[in-house]
Amino acid sequence: MKAAYIEETGPPENIIYGDLPDPTPQGSEVVVKAGSVSLNPVDTYIRNGANYWELPQPYIVGADIAGTVVDVGPEAQRFKVGDRVWGTNQGFLGRQGTFAQLSAIDECWLYPTPENVADETAAACALVGVTAHLGLFRDAALQTGESVFVHGGTGGVGSMVVQMAKAAGARVIATGGSEEKCARCRDLGADVAVNYKTQDVAAAVHAFAPNGVNVVWETVREPDFDVLVSYLAERGRIVLMAGRDARPPFPVGPFYVKGCSLHGFVMFKATPEELRACSVNMNRWMSEGKLQPQIGKTLPLSEAAVAHRLQEENTLQQAGTLAGKIVLTP
Description:
about 325 residues, 2 domains, seven-stranded mixed beta sheet, six-stranded parallel beta sheet, about 30% helix
């Protein structure tokens, strides 16, 4: 089979597109023939060596996949040959990645793809979708009628947060870095969209929710907690999912006297049961058209190194040349 893999960590140029042996399913694994895979910033960090576990050798990059089951292991029970599935959380904690024509994946990490949902949609929603779901519902316990502030409402995760919050009956205010991105936030369901480059975000948040918002979702790597805490209502919650090396000051006093809580997490530490719970809502919302990925670029799998370079330029250098997810087709 063809696969995009590395033999040593380093820059995107270390990615090799070549032949590897077809996988044989063991235990409860199934083999998935990829229809689409998608790229996430965390994939580039791992490829560059920022991981805390030993990588398989060679290591196939990638976490997300959607495709069709073509073989099943002797202990597999949930899926059969011919089933369409999607999944994420691969390439982490010693597991092999997904950027290959065929992937052997334990069925506990896979979910049925609804008939009316394309592989491209499922793959592009996978990691960013479960991230948004875990943060909003498992950790922040978002309730119908509450309000949510999303910094960066058109990004991979941010766009999922906007759509899921609206699907759950929340009110949403989101930011974008251009008028076009603000318009896209509104298209995704945001009640209010603010251009953070030209408008007063704090004034807009306070006008939107005079008593404060219930949930702040922060996507910025170096948050200004003084500002974020000022946005919060009593018993408000902040969700963090970026900024591994960040060490910003934190306003303890204003935070605790309002009875607020702070939730940080990485999705790859979620259990199979937690992720399967996310997939139930995600499948329903994808099928109903309420959850749609923002796909900024589609490339063949053979250009995985190009995709990694483009992702890094936009994640780390803020190049502004990508709006949405990169999807690759084997």
